[in-house]
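To whoever is on call:

I kicked off a structure prediction for a single chain this morning and the downstream step that reads the tokens threw a length-mismatch warning. I double-checked the sequence; it's 406 residues and nothing unusual in it as far as I can see. Pasting both halves so you can look.
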Amino acid sequence: MIVQFKDDMSFAFEFVRNLGFMYYGGSDLGEMIVTSKKVKLGDFESWFTEWDALGRRILERANVFLAAGHNESARTSYLRASTYLRMAEFYLHGNPNDPRILSEARESQKAYAEAAKLTGPTWEPIDIPYEGTTLPGYFYKVDNSGKPRPTLLFHGGYDSSLEELYFFAAAAAVRHGYNCLTWDGPGQGLPLREQKLAFRYDWEKVVTAAVDYALTRPDVDGNNLVLKGMSLGGYFAARAAAFEHRFQAVVLFDGVYDFFESVKSAIPEDALAAFEAGDLSRCEEIVYREMQGNTTMRWMVENGIWTFGASGFADFLEKTMSYTLKDGVAEKIRTPCLVMDAEGDMFFKGQPQRVRDAINAPRLLYAFTAADGAENHCQSGELSFKDEVVFNWLDETLKLHDGRRA
């Protein structure tokens, strides 16, 4: 536990989540420690102010480096600036009309795009056709040879954005010989902020669009496609795999069986009782009062109302009922699955085991523990070991070895 955030689980988790990106160049220890000491516990405005200041300071530095021709220094600074600007925006969602939500997200995206340009052609920004519009993404290549390679399709979850997906999967994918396609779907990143696209439970519609795009590329081995979803994306990926059968393997990072059960377990019992009795105003009164002194609950409620396009908490809670693998959904999965679990998961405790038990296809439940510092939700802070487990399993499941991908 980070000492300055020991009394705020939400701030502590977000700090560790983004600090973990230093393994792949997305943050750095000293500047994060110094900034975290300035943040006031439970104060969303303080969180924004301090991380925004850090992000803009490093962004200015990156611009100076670029102008002077120090391209590699500029590239690494743009990556870190993107992370810190994204962190700053994280807790602003209680007021969806706050102009900083869009402006900060665009600044983060722009900084990342500059880093991508400086990285070269193996980081390719793309657009995925989707229901009359497009979804922004990146295609990361092992090299620029054009050779067809096994390809990982990776999406986030409840609070993710396109740029962080590189650190959670794409960086490791290319090191292990896999191309990686990442994107923001409805309820995420700029599709939410610019197009007002809210989450949808039938995520196979989103994934199928991504598969269709991937198969247009000559550098994609269509016989070795892999799907991976992070956090609530563990539900999304499982739901997609139940109806989209063009994958050879699926990684549920981590496993999520029923989102409604997760949300209702996080609210006071009397609020849930009021909801079940149909007294929605009473339910919301209790939740809104309780969340004022609870950072985790406040963030969960505000982000949920916004990303689900809900009118209030009760409406959000009702919408989550559709986000489940019950009623035969899990049983439709035919693809081998790696179901990941975290010993100290603060959001979906116990759900990966339920996912594993419901799937009839070949599956492996891998539990990460505090002994390796990997007990956090989605193994935040321990990306190296997590990636070793994932890509070892993929190599064995797809029967691939380094020589065959060279």
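Update from on-call: the warning came from a stale cache, not from the record. Cleared it. Sanity check on the structure: The longest helix spans residues 44-67.
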